[in-house]
Amino acid sequence: SSGSGVWSNEGCVRAEGNLTFSTCLCNHLTNFAILMQVVPLELSPVNQVALSTITYIGCAISIFCLAITIVTFAILSSVSTIRNQRYHIHANLSFAILVAQILLLISFRFDSGTLPCKIMAILLHFFFLSAFAWMLVEGLHLYSMVIKVFGSEESKHIFYYGLGWGSPLVICVVSVTSALNSYGEVGNCWLSLENGAIWAFVAPALFVILVNIGILIAVTRIISRISADNYKVHGDASAVKLTAKAVAVLLPILGISWIFGVLAVNERSLLFQYMFATFNSLQGFFIFLFHCLLNSEVIAAFKHKTKVWSLTSSSVRNINVKPFNSDIVS
């Protein structure tokens, strides 16, 4: 494009070679960790490839699992145990993460500075903010169930949807109108680090993480107390495992593992980038595992639904059977 007939070195580095060949590596190997990266980091080609591979594999697994989760909740929505507010929140969180991760994988194919890249950055900002807003809703609903009830079911429903989809829209509109040039301009289809626009995502995300950490600590203390009382009364040592199990189940929906992204502030903290890319690209898989595949309510609802389907199909078969002549006579 320069007209001078030479290769552009923008976004690519020469890894090895001699007078007859060169091997180049290009920085289209974007990874999940850019989402919470608040300072620029220079990664070696090996780490770029590794983090990019983790991102692609993790997001692909998550997208598949989240699609199954949403379909499962939709199929079982007529069952009373699944038709409650908790599963509505799970479904909305799953949808937000599903769309965000699909957009993230697509955005890797666009060049920065182009209109499609800018549009993709805005959509990514909205859907990842929505994912965090629904993680906050998960935390608040958990708080209302375990610690303190607030508001009626109807008022909570309106509040949850307003918080889950409305607040990200407001943040995005303010951010786009005030700093449109900060989207998809440098290096990748995301918010710019140079003028601090990244904080339009990181600040709300950190707020949600801190609130949910507080809720998790409060809930864990209650579960620990119940487990201790159980142990004193029944002498059941396995009850102590309830606390660890509860924390493992709650972590994916509260999004606390996203804190690893902010901790990766220099090359020496590269481990946090790997932890962040692994745990959060697989967030959808953990939601599917704990809140769908291993969830006793979902399993019971699926068995109930299967029984209804089998009874319905047998009834249809009986209706379609041609009657005997004796039946017609009588």
UniProtKB/TrEMBL annotation:
Membrane-traversing stretches: 54-77, 89-107, 119-137, 158-177, 197-223, 244-265, 271-294
Domain (G-protein coupled receptors family 2 profile): residue spans on this chain: 51-295
Superkingdom as given in the UniProt entry: Eukaryota
InterPro entries per UniProt: GAIN_B, GAIN_dom_sf, GPCR_2-like_7TM, GPCR_2_secretin-like, GPCR_2_secretin-like_CS, GPS
Compartment(s) where it occurs, according to its Swiss-Prot or TrEMBL record: Membrane
Main subcellular location of this protein, as a coarse class: membrane
Membrane topology note: Multi-pass membrane protein
GAIN-B domain mapped to chain residues: 1-42
Stored PANTHER family: ADHESION G-PROTEIN COUPLED RECEPTOR (PTHR12011), ADHESION G-PROTEIN COUPLED RECEPTOR D1 (PTHR12011:SF216)
The name this protein goes by in its record: AGRD1 protein
Organism: Polyodon spathula
Protein's gene: Adgrd1_3
